[in-house]
């Protein structure tokens, strides 16, 4: 379970950042940034924050709403950053993920002196000290909160995209290469939101 150990071990403003959407064949990669300005937040938040992939959709939605409430109360700063499918094709998914993370920090309005990032890779030119934390969303409350923000926000984007491009199952598969997605590609072809640099998508580009 996550805690505040990494945040409390640093004197200064600490932000936690994570992304959602590296693997899907379609849509943007989304990053979430979270800064706890106090430990005195809703107990349900700290009791349930964890790696977003381990949580049910219902619990992620509940935590997302709690995070928004804490931000409105002035207890947290939150930000969302997006890098489009076009940007992913232009600069590759790793660099696009880092770009989304930087945008998330900027959008939060925070001026962190340290950014904790889930994973084992550190972006360059981030404007402050950056620390990669392997399995960070299960170790740090800030990273976990960023993970929830990114996952829920992206899932909602993909549900909207499913209305625009029906027949691919985006509302259920979030853009991953499921059977329904492949059948959609076979029947309707590649959408403007597909990542054309991804090998599975290239096969459907005529």
Q: What are the defining features of this structure?
A:
206 residues; Nucleotidyltransferase, domain 5; 5-stranded mixed β-sheet; 44% helix; 16% strand; globular
How many alpha or pi helices? 9
Largest sheet: 5 strands, mixed
**Mean pLDDT, all residues:** 96
Distance between the termini: 47 Å
Strand content: 15-25%
Radius of gyration: 17 Å
Low-pLDDT stretches: none
Instruction: Summarize the helix and strand pattern as letters.
Output: HEEHHEHHEEHHHH
Counting structural domains, the number is 1
- Please give the number of β-strands: 5
Strand order of the largest sheet: 3-2-1-4-5
CATH-assigned fold name: Nucleotidyltransferase, domain 5
Query: Given the C-alpha coordinates, what overall shape results?
Result: globular
Q: Which structural class matches the secondary elements?
A: alpha/beta
Q: What percentage of residues falls in helices of 4 or more residues?
A: 40-55%
CATH superfamily: Ribonuclease H-like superfamily/Ribonuclease H
Q: Which CATH C-level class is it?
A: Alpha Beta
Instruction: Quickly give the CATH architecture.
Output: 2-Layer Sandwich
């Amino acid at each position: 379970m996550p805690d505040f150990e990494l945040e409390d071990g640093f004197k200064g403003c600490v932000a936690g950042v994570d992304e959602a959407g590296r693997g899907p064949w379609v849509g943007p990669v989304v990053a979430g940034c979270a800064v706890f300005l106090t430990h005195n937040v809703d107990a349900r938040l700290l009791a349930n924050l964890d790696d977003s992939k381990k949580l049910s959709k219902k619990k992620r939605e509940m935590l997302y709403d709690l995070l928004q409430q804490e931000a409105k109360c002035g207890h947290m700063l939150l930000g969302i950053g997006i890098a489009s499918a076009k940007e992913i094709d232009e600069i590759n998914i790793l660099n696009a993920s880092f770009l989304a993370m930087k945008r998330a920090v900027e959008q939060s309005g925070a001026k962190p002196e340290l950014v904790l990032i889930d994973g084992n890779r550190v972006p360059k030119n981030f404007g402050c000290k950056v620390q990669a934390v392997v399995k960070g969303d299960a170790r740090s409350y800030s990273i976990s909160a960023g993970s929830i923000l990114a996952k829920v926000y992206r899932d909602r984007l993909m549900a909207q995209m499913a209305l625009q491009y029906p027949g691919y199952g985006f509302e259920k598969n979030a853009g991953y290469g499921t059977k329904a997605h492949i059948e959609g590609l076979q029947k309707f072809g590649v959408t403007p939101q597909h990542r054309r640099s991804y090998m599975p998508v290239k096969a459907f580009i005529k």
